[in-house]
User: What shape does this take?
Amino acid sequence: MKSRIFVPAALLALTVLNPIPALCQFTVVAGGLNSPRGLTFGPGGRLYVAQAGSGENNGKITEISNPWASAPAIRDVITGLISVVHTEGEAVGVDGISALGNGNIFAIMALSNKALGFRSSLGHLLQVSHGGQIREVADVGDFDLEWTKAHLNLASDFPDADPYAVLALPGRIYVADAASNTLNLVHPDGTVQILAYFPGNVLADATPTCIAKGPDGALYVGTLALVDSIVFGPSAKVYRVDPKAADPSRLLTVLNIASVWAEGLGPINGCAFGPDGSFYASEFFTAPAFANGDVVKIPFNTPYQHISMTGGKLLFPAGVTVGADGTVFVSNGSAEVPEGLGQVVRLTAK
Assistant: This one.
């Protein structure tokens, strides 16, 4: 099973050299995290972060109350989630997270049990209450693995599955799978359908890593495009999918419903829309040697305009979310960093 992200150890040290002046004020909201990935706001301005862990079954979902404060209150909602180290060195576990207004949190676990021969929560969509109760909603990973077995002609590395991002909306939940390259719809009864397939790039898969609902009601899905970005430069794209036009029963629609909205970005690892309608994406790196992670702002009506917010000061960023006042939060040190060095960072314009 392929890994979403693999940074050669020899190149890791280069990421901290040659600092670039920041365009935003940086504030560490929470530190000491292990592979922080998805971010989401819940009721009352509470910020939640998914920690994939360090391969010791130490995955967590952590709550940050009042993340605008100088010393926000931090507590773990869930601990002990399965965390495994991939054969290429990346810790995987709980990756995506999304919250509804009623306080329910939805989290997506990586990989597929059938592919690994495990019996665990890997690949499962979990519903987590504010009090820490867990309910398994659907086994997305195994569903996607079976779908790729039935469509081996679409990619050279099928069968494969690795659910990575989730977006919860009332009555429906969307999951992006970074290995099957699909956008899934999960119904309240746990039924899973595939709405869209994202075509490969020149050298490798699209690898969808985030989902955000746009001001027009459509879904916007960011892709990693890691291999192509390494070889050719920024190759990541943002696709637009209109869920009203979806027809999961018709493969031709699944294969063609996604259209490119923005392109020429560094590998996207998280995305969100702000209250002004702008799209925000974290770029895993923006420079050679896997350096200079960034958050870019893209005005909705000018998707060709990519505004750097951090000047490449981040280290392997992942999840992005935006507060009601427009403040941007991003998880930093999401992969390939020593244990306990992950952060949630607040970005404020200088």
User: Anything to note?
Assistant: Residues 154 and 265 are 24 Å apart (CA to CA).
